[in-house]
Amino acid sequence: MSKPLALLFACVGILLLSAISLFMSLKMPWLALLSSLVALGFIGYGFVLKAKLRRKNNNGS
């Protein structure tokens, strides 16, 4: 995974996790739960993408 792409995933992941804490502090449990699911999916997608790109680079070289 390229460094700019990894930085993008890290920053968006941090924003999503921050949104969870914000919604918890504002006592909005449904939005906190929704943000948790979105964050989990986004971070999981980042790991899947990293694995796919690593496999693609190993097969190509």
Automatic annotation (TrEMBL):
TM region(s), chain numbering: 29-48
Keywords: Membrane, Transmembrane, Transmembrane helix
Protein name listed in UniProt: YlaF family protein
Lineage: Bacteria, Bacillati, Bacillota, Bacilli, Bacillales
